[in-house]
Amino acid sequence: MRQVPIRPHSVSAAEVIPGDLVALSPQDVDAQRWFVVMHTVPESPEAIRVVLRPPLGGVDREELLQRERVVTVGCRRLDVADVPLVSSGALDGVPFRDGDRVTSLRAVDPLADEVVYVRRWGVWHRDLDAPTGGGEGESVGDEAVRGWARDADRDGFVVRYVGRGSASSAGGEARGRRVVVTGLGAVSPLGVGVGELWQGLLDGRHGIRELEGDEFAELPVRVAGVVPVDPAALLPRAAARRMNRAAQFAVLAAREAWVDAGFGEGGTRESGVPAERVGVSLGAILGDASVLVGGDRRLRDKGARAVSPLTTPMTVPSQAASQVSLDLHITGEARTVTSACASGTEAIGEAVDRIRYGRVDVALAGGAEAVVTPAIMASFASMRALASGGVDSGSPSRPFGKERDGFVNGEGAGVLVLEAEEHARARGARIYCEAAGWGLSADAHHMAAPDPSGDGVALALRRAVRDAGGHLVDVVHVNAHATATVEGDLAEAGALRSVFGGRAVPVTALKGHLGHLQGAAGGVEAVAAALTLHHGVVPPTLCQGDVDDSMGLDVVCGAPRQLPSRGDLVLSNSFGFGGHNAVLALRRAG
Q1: Do 262 and 427 meet the contact criterion of CB atoms below 8 Å apart?
Q2: Are the C-beta atoms of 526 and 414 separated by less than 8 Å?
Q3: Could you give the count of Cα atoms lying within 13 Å of 362 in the half-sphere of its Cβ?
């Protein structure tokens, strides 16, 4: 029908013949409401009876027209055999299921396009990935769809229903093996263990403290998110001496996650798991900067013989991954990802792919960092990146807050046990959630500042959802990076608005509780995101005041909130200096 030119001109009803495209009134012309003349039958010397059908198909209608009545003809002599006679079936008794499709075609408009709606989470969406996420006109309920079918013939529409059965939760193409989360471990400023982390988040407590010691006394900023327990005291003395602080955190978190996953204490040997089918993937920026600083100080003060032979192996960022491998006797692989503050999230994503495509069956993945040192603190302060306040009136880190003025440096480790689903189910493991996908991008903007447009962040968000085989309408929560810097929070908020539009997706940010754990942030925040899915509860953001209205986000503040039921994806964001963007997508277990 698009090939038929529409050149409206007025004629009398007596002049129309089969094949004419006619509009019965000027209002119909304006509304693009046309019909094909199928038959004409003389009714009387003054009137003719015409049979009309929508040009794109539909049911016939009869009109008795006075011969002198003026109508508009759009074109002549269409082939009436090409205009289908079709009636929209009633849908009142049809049991709708997610994955079903309904097409709606305004058949009276020769240039109309068929519109497709897909049912997901009990709602029919015109575009599952629209930024509005189903705003007005973009999503409708079951009764509206039934009404479309009921009124279609009268209104000149053709509505078709296509049942797809039960849709898979992934909703996308197969991407290797399904990967699930079966164990969690954490060491954070809120304490040692996942229980301390989760309860502290729900209670709205923070672990940011004044730094003690002469080395911090002259610094312009003397607060940080430090782990309140000496990790070395929780490990055998001989082993702890050969680990830097970040590695100690990592080993403690990995041990907790391993046991939480239902494996035997001690590692692969005690669990009867083939060591070569297990991997380690940890993110770190520096690991533990104090080892190198201490070695340099001893060299200058006491000479070369005073420098420990352990300085080099304890300085490399890969020490955490190697120590977890040693501690749990994991031989499959031990990889380290260094991509600034996105390191932990990217390390988890890399592990997801290693399991998806059969390189390993189980992986311990996350991040570990211990960079609360005078030089690092002084550097961040010189960049004017650190929050200037103390802890007397609560956390000085205010993600998305009106009074935010920078992040708080922190330390810790977060580790997840990732596992091929069939491997986990074969041993009867408890499953927290699915590690469904991840996305990367680069800003290519500045060595330290975020791209204010947020375009790179938006790209990583979309890629994570796509890699998970999902759609934007599936996202029910975002665990934001939100460092509480003025520019960083604005860029992330802008990216979230561009991706989700006006849809109010609950957002939380945890750096008010923890500080910024650098390379470990993605690991610890992924642990929290997994628990959010598992318990169905979103922990609050410590805004320490009002949320900045310019963010335009639904920031969860004040108290925990129930996770929305319509949807199944949670996104955990991590962005780093140099424009590294990484987003992890987790899906409800089921």
Answers
A1: yes
A2: yes
A3: 30
Given a cut of 90, whether residue 10 has pLDDT beyond it is yes
Percent of the chain residues past pLDDT 90, beyond the cut: 83
Amino acid, single-letter form, for residue 343: S
Q: Known catalytic residues?
A: 341, 481, 516
Q: What is the pLDDT of residues 323-340, one digit of tens each?
A: 999 999 999 999 999 999
Question: Exposed/middle/buried for 74, CB within 10 Å: 0-12, 13-18, 19+?
Answer: buried
CA 207 vs CA 71, 358, 402, 542: distances in Å: 78, 39, 22, 12
For residue 188, give the amino acid letter. Answer: S
* Residue 134 pLDDT: 46
Closest listed residue to residue 420, CA positions, set 431, 409, 410, 408:
431
pTM reported for the whole predicted model: 0.87
**Is the Cβ–Cβ distance between 290 and 362 less than 8 Å?**
no
Whether the predicted pLDDT of 407 surpasses 60:
yes
How many angstroms separate the CA atoms of 254 and 324, rounded? 7
Strands 333-337 and 278-283: parallel
Contacts of 316 (CB under 8 A, 6+ apart): 287
Mean pLDDT score, 425-451: 95
The Cα–Cα gap between 114 and 117 comes to 10
- Residue position matching structure tokens 């000496």: 230
